[in-house]
């Protein structure tokens, strides 16, 4: 019994040895075949040179126009040439200032509806006329006026004067001032002439309502008293213009 088992074990060992030898032979044959194939493929192929690179195109400035124009930190790279402004003109030569002529004379204002007008005359002639804002009298242009001041434009300059300074200094020739005495009892809340009228005039001249600028209207322009008549602190002024005769009382300074 033991002998059969021993023989069987020997047969199994021999079989295992045979299998191991076969596995080793097959592995060596496979390695030899692999080396043969690799060597055959390596000897049959030739190494080729790498392909030549594509030629570089020349640089075109137009391709970089956006980069140049949109460069935020370099204004000098803007293709638009900035032209320097022309040099300033030399200052004008010094010239002697032009003397201003004499200002017009002032005789009063009219505020009876519409635009107010001022009565003026040139300093060299007694040509009294009414002037509104924007009218010219000689070299002067009326810019604005109120009850106290008047502004002229002369040679591009604003000339403002007081109306009292522009009144003629002397009364009209041939019309002497006449003083009249005050009436015994003047009416309340009205400006009444002080005294009677001139000889032959039964109605004394009276000072009317306030016209503004210290001027008062004539209550009766045809009362017979001449221009220059003095009633209280007012002097009568009668002007003959294009619009007819105008009459008013001005304060005596």
How does this model look, in words?
The radius of gyration is 62 Å and the shape is rod-shaped. The chain has a 6-stranded mixed β-sheet, with no helix packed on it. A 4-stranded antiparallel β-sheet has the order 4-5-6-7. A 3-stranded antiparallel β-sheet has the order 1-2-3. The longest helix is centred in the first third of the chain and has 43 residues, at 2-44. It has 253 residues and is of the alpha+beta class. It has helices at residues 2-44, 65-69, 163-166; strands at residues 105-110, 117-121, 129-131, 136-137, 140-145, 149-154, 157-162, 178-179, 207-212, 215-218, 229-231, 234-241, 244-251. Strand 9 and strand 10 form a beta hairpin. It has 3 helices and 13 strands. Residues 172-202 have low confidence and may be disordered.
Topology:
Layout (H helix, E strand, L loop, with lengths): L1 H43 L20 H5 L35 E6 L6 E5 L7 E3 L4 E2 L2 E6 L3 E6 L2 E6 H4 L11 E2 L27 E6 L2 E4 L10 E3 L2 E8 L2 E8 L2
Parallel strand pairs: 8-11
Antiparallel strand pairs: 1-2, 2-3, 4-5, 5-6, 6-7, 9-10, 10-13, 11-12, 12-13
Task: Characterize this entry briefly.
This protein has helices spanning 2-44, 65-69, 163-166; strands at 105-110, 117-121, 129-131, 136-137, 140-145, 149-154, 157-162, 178-179, 207-212, 215-218, 229-231, 234-241, 244-251.
């Amino acid at each position: 019994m033991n002998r059969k088992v021993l023989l069987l074990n020997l047969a199994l060992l021999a079989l295992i040895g045979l299998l191991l030898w076969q596995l080793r032979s097959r592995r060596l044959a496979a390695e030899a075949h692999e080396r043969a194939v690799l060597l055959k493929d390596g000897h049959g192929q030739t190494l080729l040179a790498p392909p030549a690179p594509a030629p570089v195109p020349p640089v075109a400035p137009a391709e970089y126009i956006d980069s140049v124009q949109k460069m935020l930190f370099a204004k000098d790279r803007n293709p638009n040439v900035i032209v320097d402004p022309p040099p300033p003109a030399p200052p004008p030569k010094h010239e002697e200032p032009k003397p201003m002529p004499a200002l017009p004379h002032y005789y009063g204002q009219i505020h009876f509806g519409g635009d107010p007008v001022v009565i003026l005359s040139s300093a060299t002639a007694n040509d009294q006329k009414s002037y509104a804002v924007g009218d010219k009298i000689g070299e002067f242009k009326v810019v604005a006026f109120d009850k106290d001041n008047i502004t002229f434009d002369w040679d591009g300059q604003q000339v403002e004067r007081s109306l009292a300074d522009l009144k003629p200094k002397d009364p009209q020739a041939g019309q002497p001032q006449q003083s009249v005495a005050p009436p015994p009892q003047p009416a309340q809340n009205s400006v009444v002439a002080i005294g009677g009228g001139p000889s032959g005039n039964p109605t004394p001249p009276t000072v009317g309502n306030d016209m503004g600028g210290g001027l008062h209207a004539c209550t009766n322009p045809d009362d017979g008293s001449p221009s220059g008549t003095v009633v209280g602190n007012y002097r009568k002024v009668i002007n003959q213009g294009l619009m007819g005769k105008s009459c008013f009382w001005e304060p005596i300074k």
